Amino acid sequence: MDRLLGRSAPSSSPSAAPAGGRSAVVAHLQDFVATRVGVEAYVEPPNAQTPPTVLLVATTGEWTRRRVPDERTGFDVARSLGVPVYNVRFTGYPQRMRDWNSAQHARQKNRPRR
Known about the structure:
By secondary structure, the chain is α+β, with helices and mostly antiparallel strands. The chain has one domain (19-110). The protein is built from 4 helices and 4 strands; from the N terminus they run αβββαβαα. A 4-stranded mixed sheet has the order 3-2-1-4. It is globular.
C-alpha cells in the first residue's frame, strides 16, 4: 500500500512528504474499511481547490476522504483495499452519503450551545 501512495526509500529532499503522513493515511483507510460494512470507493478528480482524492463511503453513508498523488493511484489504492471503486465523474456521489451529511448537519444544529 505504501508503494501505491508514492512511499519509497527515505529521502533527504526537503520537499519529500514525511513517511509518517503516508503511513497514517494508509492506516486510516484500512481501519475505515475494516470497521464499516459495505464500503465503496469513489475516485475524485483534481479541481482548482483540491488534488485528486479517494472517498470511502460505508453502507450507513459515513465517509472519509484522503488525498492521493493522482487518479490512477486512487484506483490502485481502492483495489488494494478490496473494495469496489468508481469514478465519481461518471457515477456521482451516493445518496446515502448525502443523507448522512444532512443527518449530521441536523444533529449539530440541534446540539445545545455551551
